[in-house]
Write a structure and sequence with these properties.
By secondary structure, this protein is α+β, with helices and mostly antiparallel strands. The chain is built from seven helices and six strands; from the N terminus they run H-H-E-E-H-H-H-E-E-E-H-E-H.
């Protein structure tokens, strides 16, 4: 009936009166009608963020990944970790929102996370994969003792994409096998298709 279009046009006009230069929208990829409406109004895709779910299974799929030299993230790694996250976030995405960095936390963020981990019965771990003398990838894993799901996300430097993702997910699955069997959720964006494919 054109209601959504009229509402969007009114909203955009109001933003123009406020001198707003950029508007961001979120839409599910399985909503083609709304995507078309937004495209008709001049919006373009910046990135697609997704969440993938794996059923509660302890087994690492056969043939997936090799043993990799992953080690815990250290305090001394935080600058390099921040640089990796920035390099892994395309300029088109950085233009519209701050780089989301779950790997270099301030002391108060670390304290809040430790308290949250304690009360939620979870264990948060950050890991580093080094290759050629530099940080190639970062892994964030939250293993749940009480409430599902386990969670996993990675950042891979663009220079190493397509070479480490299988090994990283196999590593994460082996680490999560130490916890009660639960559903696992992995997060990825369309700007890292190799991770989405894994």
């Amino acid at each position: 009936h054109g209601i959504a279009r009229a509402m969007m046009q009114a909203s955009l006009e109001h933003l123009r009166t406020l001198k707003v230069k950029t508007a961001l929208l979120n839409v599910r990829p399985d909503n083609p009608g709304v995507i078309k409406l937004y495209q008709d109004l001049g919006f373009g895709e910046v990135e697609m963020r997704g969440e993938w779910t794996r059923t509660a299974s302890r087994a690492v799929p056969s043939g997936m990944g090799h043993a990799v030299a992953v080690r815990p993230l250290r305090e001394a790694d935080h600058r390099a970790a921040s640089e990796l996250v920035r390099a892994a976030t395309p300029a088109a995405v950085q233009k519209y929102h701050a780089v989301r960095n779950e790997f270099s936390l301030t002391w108060d963020e670390r304290m809040a996370e430790a308290v949250g981990d304690f009360f939620m019965g979870q264990v948060t771990r950050r890991w580093v994969l080094e290759m050629d003398g530099r940080l190639a990838a970062l892994v964030l894993m939250r293993g749940q003792r009480l409430v599902p799901p386990h969670r996993c996300s990675v950042e891979v430097h663009p220079d190493f994409r397509g070479r480490v993702e299988d090994d990283l997910i196999a590593f994460a699955l082996r680490e999560l096998a130490r916890f009660p069997s639960r559903e696992i959720r992995a997060f990825a964006t369309s700007t890292h298709p190799e991770w989405m494919a894994v």
